[in-house]
Here is the input.
Amino acid sequence: MEELSALFQGFAVVLTPMNFVLMLIGIILGVLIGVLPGLGGANGVAILLPLTFSMNPTSAIVMLSCIYWGALFGGAITSILFNIPGEPWSVATTFDGYPMAQQGKAGEALTGAFTSSFIGAFVAVVMITFLAPLVAKFALEFGPPEFFSVYLLTFCSFVGMGKGSPFKILASMALGFALAAVGMDTVTGQLRLTFGWTELMRGFDFLIAVIGLFGIGEILLSMEEGLAFSGKSAKINPKVVFETWKKLPKYWVTSLRSSLIGIWMGITPGGATPASFMSYGLAKKMSKNGAKFGTGELEGVVAPETAAHAAGTSALLPMLALGIPGSPTAAVLLGGLLIWGLQPGPLLFVEQKDFVWGLIASMYLGNLVGLLVVLTTVPLFASILRIPFSIIAPVIIVICAIGAYTVHNAMLDIWFMLLFGVIGYVFKKLDYPLAPLVLALVLGDKAEDAFRQAMLVSQGDLGIMFSNGLVGGITTVALLMLFWPLLSRLIALVRQPKQDEFAAERPVD
Amino acid sequence: MDSHEGSGTGVATNIIDAVVAIIVIIAGGVVIYGSRKLGSEWTSEGPGAGYFPFYIGLILIISGAGVLYQSLAGKNKNTDVFVDREQLGRVFSVLIPAAVYVGAIQLIGIYVASAIYIALFMVILGKYTWIKGITAALVVNILFFLMFEVWFKVPLHKGTYDLLSGLGY
Here is the structure.
């Protein structure tokens, strides 16, 4: 078991006192970010990224990935206690979580949510431990056409699995690619699409986009509602925790199913939000208590939380093994790799063993520590939510501005952040998904390089995308995904479609 | 978001949708124009610098046209009010001060601008007393100052007129 020995090596890396402290800081910051409106996993990590520039990459990734776990945990707190999903993927948690809190069973709901988050993440990490090295080994054989086909699949999956108008998904994605193209061309060194504006030479950094789109955009949205939090209080004591833990094994089928859904949706860039909804829907359909879902069933909290966390964790597999992130947060972590001077992609497993296995080990430990931290500190974080919005909002805007500035020490970036904030607000209101834009902005240059290299090999013949079984297969699946909205309509003509009962509640992610 | 349906007056969502779609189409046009100028054809060294952006511009135009069609002639067009006047007022009450704040950062640096911004936001929008607003603003910014300038040694923007130059950072 080569992987196991590598994993233990990783544990040794993570368990230095310094890394352990960073891990704790990461988790606590992460929960805070998950709880606060306007700060989420993606932009929280983006804002804190510049602080890690001087750290060694392993410590940096340990801290940042722990922020991510913390944010995943934190989302559940606001959903259950305040009926406000802190993150899009915790919308489904509110369906049963908030009714439970209203019935005074907040402690039980929170324990259930945290524990199943942990289980989802754990199953996903075990999968990553054994699958990621295999995928990476396989991908070492990839040439430019193969890589481009995988990029194509990533982006076409957004269209195939996304919700809402496929044209909007496409527009959002193409906008990301267009913004990525601005600045110095990586191949010819020409300035592209700057229209004579030298400050644009740097291009649009995706970190700025993430901070603006998710941070400022979210604040504007919350402000529109004239936000007033009114939450349930939570008391978690060991007795509630143990009693809930006794009930949880009953739902092992739901947990397992939700984990698998989450893993699948996380590796393909379906993302945590659809995963949580799909898993909630399936649990409702298959459970004996299905009819009672929505009135405060523990199982209705277990299903979406397990899936969301499993998906959030699995999104790191393609990021690690292929250099293609499965979610905006994974994309920000990928951006981190580039900044720390690591080349993401399959070679990472060969050249940076300490880094990769340190990260994987920190996933195990981070989630375990995260579970303990949130179980013990929920009342503290719930009280943060009672700080009035008129204090939190300006502070978050200040944090976003600082975060945007530190990326390149450029004043212009703060203006861009504001601009992206307005775009984020309008796009959210019009149901344009933001994840494709961010991923396209991150991967734009690399996807383009792969495409150009592939075209160079074939002298401009698109037929190279079908030149062998592997690349042809991936391309075919990608095209199927791209035209899926059309195909599903054709299928619907022949057969009555099944109604998706949660379609209205599911946010466009 | 849809809880305010029907309340107040304002522009219908599908009109805004159409406007954004037109902006997307224009953006696509700009990208195509830019990439044509760069050379979107096959050059002697392979695909030119504008080769890939050209297709991106094309996709932008196609998708923009699709959204435009759906918003104006689609079956399920959303004619709810996009934002009513009260909501718009609240959004602008954050957005405009934020823009002024960014302008202030340029002039007097992040720390001073942030302190003034937080204090004013709390007093004017949050209806706090001046003492509370100023205290919170100072505490937050001193914390940031220590964290960035002193602990992590990440210097932030000091502005054209550095009011904190006496501190030596």
In short: The two ends of chain B are 45 Å apart (CA to CA). The CA atoms of residues 92 and 98 of chain B lie 9 Å apart.
